[in-house]
């Protein structure tokens, strides 16, 4: 992970540690938004990973999508089917 990605991952890790136990486990997507954010930061670096994570979080609402939505590049077969 790049240094910028480590810094961008700090709020995600803080959320998982402090808020996630209180909010519950009701994420509409698989993997969860926080797991997606950490994987996107690890795979794509700080800038692109942050953009991918922000885009995913913006889609996570009652009228948004749901289901399996991996980080681009994590599941080549899923990427081909898109």
TrEMBL record:
Q: Which GO terms describe its cellular component?
A: plasma membrane
Topology with regard to the membrane?
Answer: Peripheral membrane protein
In terms of superkingdom, the source organism counts as Bacteria
Keywords from UniProt, A to Z, are:
Cell membrane, Membrane
UniProt xrefs under InterPro entries: Membr_insert_effic_factor_YidD (IPR002696)
Q: Where's it found, cell-wise? A: Cell membrane
What family does the database annotate? Belongs to the UPF0161 family.
Q: Briefly, what is this protein's role?
A: Could be involved in insertion of integral membrane proteins into the membrane.
* Protein name in UniProt: Putative membrane protein insertion efficiency factor
Species this chain originates from: Tabrizicola oligotrophica
Gene name, per UniProt, is yidD
